[in-house]
Amino acid sequence: MPGASSKNQQGETNMRFASISIAALATAIAAPAFAQDQAQADDTRSGGIAEIVVTAQKRAENVQDVPIAITAFTAGALQERAVGDVSALSGITPNVTLDASTPFSGSSAVLGATIRGIGSSDFAFNIDPAVGVYLDGVYLGRSIGANQDLLDVERIEVLKGPQGTLFGRNTIGGAISIVTHNPGDEFHAKGDVTVGRFNRIQARGLVDIPLAPGLSSSVAFGLHKRDGFQKRVAYSDPGANDSFTLFPASGYETRSRQGGDNSWNLRGKLRWDDGGKFRATFSADYTNIDQDSTANTVLAVTPIPGPFAGVAENNIPGTALDVVTGSSGFLFAGLYNFCIGATAQQIADRNATNLCGPRSSVNGYLTLPGLASRNVDGDPYNDLLPYDGRWVNTDKDVSYANGNNFSKLKQWGLGLNLEYDLTDNIALKSITSYREVDFKAGVDLDNSPLPILQTSFIVDQYQFSQEVQLTGSAMDGALNFVLGGYGFKENGDLRDFVTFSAGLLQVDGPGKVDTEAYAGFGQVDWRVNDLIGISVGARYTKENKRYDGAQSDINGFNYKLFNCMALDPATGNPSAECAAGVGFPIPSEPFRYYPTSPNKQTFDDFSYKLGLQLHPTEDVMAYGSFSRGYKTGGWTTRLSNPLPVAPTFGEEVAETFEAGVKSTLLDRRLQLNAAVFTTKYKGIQLNFQQGVSPTIQNAGDARIKGFEIEAVAAPADGFTITASAGYLDAYYTNVLAPAQVAPNPFQLGVQKGSALPKAPEWKFNVSPRYEVAVGNGKIVALADWTHTTGMRNDTEGTILLLRPTTDIVNASLQYQAPDNQWNLTVGGTNITNERYLVTGQAQIAGGQIYGTYSRPAEWYVRLGFEF
């Protein structure tokens, strides 16, 4: 499968390099560079392709004049192409993969973003994204809530490649800038109502209300409700299985479906602009989500071949560790099966009496009966179902899970933008923002009525940011500059709950995060003459981070493993002597894996950009640039065993050379842009599975090479074709020994030459649009086809999680009444019902490989109005 297999042989690497070099050269000759409008071709002045104004360089410019690889979308284009949230941009943006959810997050509001092979597939509070999402110039610090509903969007700009100079930390892969509607000075209202498959009902509205000369306001609202596409059904033989409510979690709400939507949001703006030197915009937004967890499908059950460990005579005395075969007893589903199916003598022979004995529950340590011999004790009424192949899904849209099933997010923010013209050519701007995220989710990942793998989370995040920009021009506009300073403060709490194998392991992971970051930046763009332009930019960032973690196993599995069961009579918990003997770092907190230090780290970075532009004609620009991006380091917080020192990971860096061309040709009837790039990606932070724990490591280094081509053609009035192509060759050039994964029956592995995750080799998109007058109204027909070759969905290249080559087709037919006072659209998304895994995890030690499938084919009917 393209983009998913390992590439270990030097000959293959050389062939790849040669092919991409030839392709890059051909692209550069033909018309390279990148960044263009994906909107409809509707320029009222000439019948050609409309201009899009962007602010990618902190000033308003035609996207065709910006020497950066940008794909920009207008509000009209987003609506016509049924783009309702950020993740839906994935199919129509080359070399970009945006997924609604990440493994075990349980929420479609979490954004898994990867641009040109650089991204992050985790939502943990301590892990920073690699693609920055900005809302009206404000950085959203978490991937939770970053999959924004596109309520009242004016445009979206997707900037590809490191954006460290002007956008700063954690934009190593790129940046997504969402610009919302500003109030107008006349009364204006528009909205729409949509119905569709799975009982979908969606309503959105926007109204501009002038309040006084120079003072205007706007209010936008949206609501969206849709049944989940995955049904939960009762298993025919529920057995005497323990309820998931016996074990700690962030909540115990269940629902009959998974993958549904239920949300509403509001945004209000108040703007002062009387045409003078001073302008101000105050904004407030609120989002409330209370819906199902994401759908989940079990692809394989992994307690293979059965018993949890090796041969008893090989075990270390007093433990269940087989030192001859290397079996460690940490195949938890296998241990569960062994306990319920073994006699007391068989359990004793394996030194597993305590492991199979009483378990902890919400009522405290060892307050729940054990699992030992439940299926062989002669009492059929207390038999438990084993965890075996019967729980592999036979229908991806049906689940036997009956555990926690909810996703709740409350997110709000306040913003104040102030602008003052110091002179006719110099302006001062301030962007102040405060935002909060209150997140709670739970998902049952085992496709069974057993509490084999249940995850739930609580995240409360607060952030404050302040940016000041001084922008201006000189030399009759030949020189443009921006200087600025930035401050960001974030803190909050998180808590992870994970129940493994009927409570044999019960993770309770509280933690606190506190981050302060400061930066100074600047960029100068000088048009030396009609032919040559030069860009120079730099940014210095310093940040202080603190993490206080307290992850625990409240079932005390390690104590049972080493048969250290002495209790403190005052608390009833394991004694301090046991805690010290087994290796817990804080004997007074006997369940706590996580040590107290180091809990502080300091990072600093100097990112810069150098660029050269050539303007052979007014409508053609060629450019070349070197840019550097930076992503901060942090802590791995999910541990499988107690450690004396908290594990940290360092920052990662990307350095990219890019060359491209932007052109508007044939009297604005053809827009042809392209870019070719090569990136050195160093100190990569990627998720690796260590036992039951997904951990972050600096995996090594990679080389990423590729190109992008985007075109908009308007060959005739009313007819346009938008098309794009992207190519990526993203592979490891070095993998550190602790991060290497050997190929195995489950996985392709990770070693030098392996492909990076979420980096398909090819992506093509073609979208024809035809508009024809009907009386005083018009009909607009639109089709959208995206072909994406296969890719890894996880770092290790789990074979069952590989995303195959996909072909996604969307289409719509719209009637617009005279003056577009109302319109009616009938459309479908994924109309060929292409199903593929969006995300997933190989939880081999926990007992399963599972994933989330894409949404099935859906139809919709939308009625819109505007006046």
Automatic annotation (TrEMBL):
Residue stretches spanning the membrane: none
Bilayer topology annotation: Multi-pass membrane protein
Pfam families assigned to the protein according to its UniProt record, in alphabetical order: Plug (PF07715), TonB_dep_Rec_b-barrel (PF00593)
Location, primary (coarse class): membrane
Alphabetic keyword roster: Cell outer membrane, Ion transport, Iron, Iron transport, Membrane, Receptor, Signal, TonB box, Transmembrane, Transmembrane beta strand, Transport
Lineage: Bacteria, Pseudomonadati, Pseudomonadota, Alphaproteobacteria, Sphingomonadales
N-terminal signal peptide: 1-35
GO cellular component, one term: cell outer membrane
Highest rank taxon of the organism: Bacteria
Similarity comment text for this entry: Belongs to the TonB-dependent receptor family.
UniProt key word Cell inner membrane: no
Annotated TonB-dependent receptor plug domain residues: 63-175
Keyword tRNA processing recorded: no
Name by which UniProt lists this protein: TonB-dependent receptor
Compartment(s) where it occurs, according to its Swiss-Prot or TrEMBL record: Cell outer membrane
Domain TonB-dependent receptor-like beta-barrel: 372-831
Biological-process GO terms, alphabetical: iron ion transport
